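Minutes, structural biology subgroup

Action item carried over from last meeting: produce the structure token record for Glycosyltransferase (Bosea caraganae). EB confirmed the sequence was re-checked against the source entry. Recorded below for completeness.
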Amino acid sequence: MSRLHRIAFIGNSLPRRCGIATFTTDLQQAIAASGAISATGAISGSGAIAAATGGVETSIVAMNDHGHAYDYPPAVHFQVDDDRIGDYVEAAEFLNAGRFDAVSLQHEFGIFGGEAGSHLMALLSRLTIPVITTLHTVLAEPTPAQRRVMDAIVEASSRVVVMTEKGRVLLRTVYRVPADKIEVIPHGIPDFAFAAPDAAKAKFGFSGRSVILTFGLLSPNKGIEVMIDAMPSILKSRPDAVYVVLGATHPNLVREQGEAYRESLVARVRDLGVEDHVVFLDQFVDQPTLLDFISMCDVYVTPYLNEAQMTSGTLAYSFGLGKAVVSTPYWHARELLAGGRGILVPFGDSPAIGDAIAGLLTDDTRRQAMRERAYADSRSMTWERIAERYLAVFEATTRAYRLKVIPRADKGEFARDVRKPPEMRIEHLLSMCDDTGLFQHAVHAVPDRSHGYCVDDNARALLLACALNTPGEQRLSEALTSRFAAFVQHAWNPDLRQFRNFMSFDRRWLEDKGSEDSHGRTLWALGECARSDVSPSRRRWASALFAEALPIVEGFHSPRAWAFALLGLDAYCSVTEADCATLQLRQVLADRLTAMLATVETKDWVWFEDGLAYDNARLPQALLVTGLSTGTAGYVEAGLRSLRWLTVLQTTPAGFFRPVGTESFGDKRRPPLPFDQQALEATASISACLAAWRADGDGAWKAEAARAFGWFLGENDLSVPLVDLETGSCRDGLHRDRANENRGGESVVSYLLSLAEIRQLARASLDRTRPVPLRVLSAL
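Output recorded by EB:
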């Protein structure tokens, strides 16, 4: 007995006018009509699916285009506006809550919002059920954005279906998809009786004519003008011939140009003097009417202009009704019509099309033999047979399905990414600096002077300078490193024993002291500078200022300030004979964090506070590095436990890193919201995971770090890269529907610090005999 109970389909749906809508509807109806399968009933006011009488229920999640609404049939239970990313998120919630066994996704780049349809990943990344994706287009030469989206879709899918062997070849050679993940299932066709065209010709008023037909939405890539140019030569052999062009103009073309394209075709007919032999039927017809139109034709023609047409529903339908077909050799036609099942002619070659059609119209015996062969060879393509094949794929997929887990560091794509990180490029960082220090913000990639500077970002920049002192990296200039250090020194307020934070562009301090967190973060930078700056003089300066600025931290209340100070203490104590007061404060701060965890922690909430905020991973990281340095197992265990819990929260069902969004800040004991996502969260997670790897030697932590780094490169909810690899700039975050195009100081230093750690990890991975401890470099 089948284990399938509910199947959902994502795609366009009739009455929307397009080939994907027709396919989605046909497939859904075929599945619903197959055996014991029945379409589901209406949904209740709460959106739950009503029980059907038995078998497998089907439901469609329909894509709307550009805000248009459609009068959908009852099978459509959810609608997604293509440019509203919130709808994709809600669709995922609908599907997860609906207890569907599998989702059948119909993919075409043009029907989803975002760059190259990247909004779709906001849906797929949240699904907890298997996805079987039918790829209606497989590009041989995708743009970088298309490649990123395609790779993400394939990764999120349990199986991918293509309709031709060419599609399989491209998936294997261009996209490196494993062979066992690919299924080839032809385009379905209606099960229509083989019949002579006479009755249908009479129905439409074409009795006594030799009918040539093209149907489908009109657009310039269809090559209709080439066929029109062939009509004069056809009429020399068959004066009774008529070319019927059935189909409305593509809606996207109408929005952009109105009916200019159709009017140009009509003018072309008029100029050639064949007005009585070319008929335009500006209609989008239902399936019974369409089948009658196909039935009436003597020759069906698809004169497409480009070979990169992976699937043609019009070709499949006409072939399946037993029609003699003349076509250009685009990928689908080349396969379907091979071996004499149709006639292939060169692209854009009107004389060749004319000769081929005239030959068929004047040779009844040949045309009839071609018809009979097409009809016989297409019986395996009827929707009933296609439904059976899809159901077999759904069944096998659900039986084998497991929620995706994060691959271990020694296996899979993440390990390969770790070994081949991007180059370190600092052009944008340099453009964000002047002779005072690092600017806070930017407008796009242009520094924004109106917001001035802050010690937070300049302390981070000083940490980056220390990070780039490691072997294999090009150091920042002495002048630039000194500038960051000078900013930190100038921020010190000796009267209050704290660091100021914000400075205007005209070098006026805007406060007498900054936040506890900015003070702690500056201590971290000083501690690291004391340990690893190339300048002995600057190391001594950092050590002295660290010691002077440390004591006040004991009176702080911010757990993040404690964590930042502990990270600074880890570096400072590794190179300095720390006094008893310093060592005691280190223990006090670590004990405070572990006490907070013990007080707040429950079975389902393994965290230090009742809510999640920014730089979350720094809290477990501080305990991990302190526990490792002091040999305190309790600190290490608490750090590992809390980081494991945070890691689960920051992992999507599809395996992407999803940092805690700023919309979650202030929520109490609730799962984090996904947006807005910021770079400092990825950076914090990378550092914390590498600290965990050093603590317990589990290579899975390296995979976690690499996965978090992938967020910068486009492995995220929107499949949008945050970084420009040529300049080293980093966008300020990920919104619901787009990346934030501003590229400020915090973001660029976040990315470069993470890149430094990943590059150091790549170098360390060359020595597989033992884990090589990595310095904790990031400071956010």
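Discussion: The first helix runs from residue 19 to 33.
Next step: EB to file the record with the rest of the batch.
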